[in-house]
Amino acid sequence: MPNATVEPFFEGEILSAYEKANKEGSLDPRCIPEHLNGEPPIGADIPYPTYSDDEHAVWQFLYSRQCALLPNRASTDFLSGVALLNLKADRIPKLSELSATLEKATGWRVARIPGLLHERDFFELLSRRIFPSTDYIRGRHELNYTPAPDLFHDIFGHLPMLTHQDFADFYQLFGKAALHAEGGHRVMLERLHWFTVEFGLVRESDGVRIFGSGALSSSEEVKHALSDKVTVHPFSVETVVAQDYDVWHLQDVLFVLDSFEQLKAAFSDWTHAEGLL
Questions:
Q1: What are the CA-CA distances from residue 274 to residues 5, 171, 183, 185, 270 (Å)?
Q2: Which residues have C-beta within 8 Å of that of residue 76, sequence separation ≥ 6?
Q3: Is the distance from CB of 110 to CB of 133 less than 8 angstroms?
Q4: For residue 107, is it left (φ>0), alpha (ψ between -120 and 50) or beta?
Q5: Greatest Cα-to-Cα distance within the chain, rounded to the nearest angstrom
Q6: DSSP code of 117?
Q7: 87: which DSSP letter?
Q8: Smallest Cα–Cα separation from 143: which of 214, 62, 240, 51?
């Protein structure tokens, strides 16, 4: 979760953006990665929690607010994914039902996890076409921003793009490659994840649109990402993995794909060249 001369980057301690942020500031305990203790519940085995009326109301608020911001900003594939998953404002969806829909569309399933996962557990699930999702929702005091993953970010932000075949294939490749990454490669993949899965842009016939989950699930980032305050570069793996970023601020540098076929092919070529696949 994780630019193109990387030699200076390898000098000294190699830290990811999150590790640097946590080293420099106070660490929210929810941002400490957890190891899985055995196989998590997957698909039909995921129970549906008893959510309070207030928790459903928080989902309704976040969903309605975000959907109002998506026209002329969100990618066509993201919007079609929201429709395919039948996401609605009235109630928090069931992970088991979302998993069944994803499995029919692209062969992905959903696992219920307790919180932020250790990267090895996260990548192992991705490599098996399993998306790890939390099933708790943020409180009202964090409606605008939460440093920890919650079900709104996981469900609304991530799952729609996994209905798109090329993106779904890329994300499995990412998990497989990340399992083999060490040292500098680990941080390079974190950067690639950040500038594609979390904050990626794609060029469509009517302009540049957002597909990244971090931007599309944030009321501030979704408005900021296509503004004139952001410098947008054409996507190439070599350029992206050389670009550092700060996790605690609005993103001022982003990258735009020509297509998700480009993402899948370019990532496959790069990881094979680097010996990660």
A1: 14, 17, 13, 9, 6
A2: 204, 209
A3: yes
A4: left
A5: 53
A6: B
A7: -
A8: 62
pTM: 0.89
What's the CA gap between 216 and 75, in Å, rounded? 10
Q: In this predicted model, what pLDDT tens digit does every residue of 212-265 receive, in sequence order?
A: 999 999 999 999 999 999 999 999 999 999 999 988 889 999 999 999 999 999
- What 3-state class would DSSP assign to 106? helix
Task: For residue range 61-98, list pLDDT tens digits in order.
Answer: 999 999 999 999 999 999 999 999 999 999 999 999 99
What ranges do the domains of the chain cover? 7-26+41-273
Q: Which two tokens stand for residue 173?
A: 């490749």
φ and ψ of 52, to 5 deg: -75, 165
Domain 7-26+41-273, classified CATH 1.10.800.10, yes or no = yes
Give the E-state strand segments of the chain in sequence order. 109-112, 130-133, 201-204, 207-210, 231-234, 253-257
Residue 253 sits at φ, ψ, to 5 deg, of: -130, 125
Catalytic residues: 153, 158, 198, 217
The DSSP output letter for 225 is T
Residue carrying structure tokens 């991705």: 126
Residue 270 near residue 237 (C-beta atoms within 8 A): yes
Amino acid at 53: D
CA distance 133 to 159: 9
